[in-house]
Amino acid sequence: MTESTxxxxxxxxxxxxxxxxxxxxxxxxxxxxxxLGFPVVHSxxxxxxxxxxxxxxxxxxxxxxxxDRIAFFYYFGTENPTRGDKGDAYAKFAADVPEYFVRSRHxxxxxxxxxxxxxxRRRLDASDWPVEMQIQHETIESIYTHDPNGYFFEITRAMRxxxxxxxxxxxxxxxxxxxxxxxxxxxxxxxxxxxAELIVDRAGGWQPxxxxxxxxxxxxxxxxx
Length: 225
Hints:
It is built from five helices and twelve strands. It has helices spanning 25-35, 99-103, 114-125, 164-181, 188-202; strands at residues 17-21, 40-46, 57-63, 69-75, 86-87, 92-93, 106-111, 133-136, 140-146, 152-158, 206-209, 219-222. The strands form four sheets. It has a four-stranded mixed β-sheet, covered by helices on one side. A four-stranded mixed β-sheet has the order 7-10-9-8, with helices on one face. A two-stranded antiparallel sheet has the order 5-6. Strand 5 (86-87) and strand 6 form a beta hairpin. Helix 4 (164-181) crosses helix 5 (188-202). The radius of gyration is 22 Å and the shape is globular. The termini are close together. Mean pLDDT is 82; it is low at 212-218.
């Protein structure tokens, strides 16, 4: 347990499901079930549910492994809102919204290894939704495409384990960010400066850890008092 949790016990066991609207359920089933091979595991058919203006709908789920699911709502008689050219079936953006902002809203699921990643690339490239890019990040490699609803979709695999030192660094970064956001005109430079201050303040509570990650690489761990 780390300082950042405030002593709260971590009890969740992962994602039960994430859910999105769809305006093309047939293509959605083709993409997730017939191309990627995610089985349909549950559905809810609801008529006359909720408020008076709530349409009849079907809510259906695909198994994405580890008892996790991705789900979709199809609302009968609901037209696809058109508010711009960018974005997905629900969140439309105007043409002047930067592409990086639009793509930041996405779903990523992970596989065990490179072989599995390339198998999903093969399936997608043989479908109507080929891979748009394949990128190696700091610790992961990912393939990306858009599903039939325009949702940006990622499959990723770890290239190496994330070390405890990187977890510690992440907590320092977030604490520095929260501090900077409480002050006027936050910038990336101010974030780095505040992070350096936190390192100095907290270094006395750290002790050498057992080598982690690459062989022979020593790190540091937080002493929780």
